[in-house]
Design a protein that fits this description.
Elements (H helix, E strand, L loop, with lengths): L1 H32 L12 H21 L10 E4 L3 E5 L9 E2 L11 E2 L9 E5 L10 E5 L2 E7 L1 H15 L2 H6 L2 H8 L3 H20 L1 H9 L9 H20 L3 H21 L4 H30 L21 H14 L7 H17 L4 H4 L6 H13 L1
Length: 391
Amino acid sequence: MLRQLTRILLIALAILFGVALLAAAVSAVANRRLPRASADPARLSVAERARLAEYFHLRAELGERVWPGFGDANIPVVLYNEAMVFLVGLADPAPGWQPMPDGNVAGGPWTPLAESVAGQAAYGQPLPAGGATPQSFTVQVGDRWAASLTTMEWMRVGLAEEIRADLPPAVAAVFPYGLFIDQLVSGSDQFISLLAHEAFHAFQGQVAPQRLAAAEATLRQEAGYPWETTAGAWQGELAALAAAVAAPTDAEAARLAGEFLDIRARRRAETGQTPAQIDFEQQREWLEGLARYAELAIWREASIDPAYQPVAALGADPDFANYTGYEARWRRELEQMGRMAAQPDEGRFYYSGMAIGVLLDRLHPGWKARALEPGVTLEGLLGESLSQRAQ
């Protein structure tokens, strides 16, 4: 019997080893076909222009449902790849771009491109020799706030290159980059919503420039924040928040929201967090959490409105799914929220701030009228909503 079991085990291990070798070989072949650079860095591709056209259309049609003033705001877009910077949505632009909230103007004069985007002039210029990029956030072109992001093509290529650089050569050859990148940038729907995320930062800059500057300045505290010390306490905090968002009734959502705020207060007291560290949390939730909220909210609106029609040019994009993947994305967001407690970076505030915004939609109608005002925090608005319900 022992010999028979040993034989079965050896056969099973051989099969598993063979499957692993086959998977590695398939992955290695697939990796050879992956692009290592943009197909034509000097131009905005047809697909990139279609995504840009949809961004402008989507925000104009549904942006007001996401946030008062967001749909009507004039927010140009700066896209860049490994060699070029492109600008769409701004006529006769001032030279270069300025990283926000502070920084020197980079780049030079813009050159008109032959192709327009949804009837709007497009411009381009080479990246500066020093390698400065607009980065993914918001920049100013002259006195105009603009959303800034990489092209989708370079986003996917660049992510794969970053992963490849961090892996040992033997692993880098067989790592399934395509599958991994698909989880981070699932398609044009997600890319367009990411443009809305960065556009919301530009909107924050338009409406509350001093708040944006203060919130971005707190990022200097990231290195000294007690990520690992507070990880265990954050686990319960985020679990309560996720449960509140998913609660079937408003009463249950309010109860769990109160539990979330209680756990948060205890965590801060028990871990001895300083006022500066608490301010860091609140500022990053306001800055990045609200942008994540807008990113998902506009995708949701497009997915549930039967009358909404994307621009026709996206019909030729095989990576566009007409926003049908929203529910799956939302489920992943809630699942990922609980895992963010173990991540030693500000990513957890993207999730906590976004989730508080979703709760406020439910428990505190009209909260957006005050959310961008000086000194107003998302957790403070949530606490106000619970106090009003208790009266």
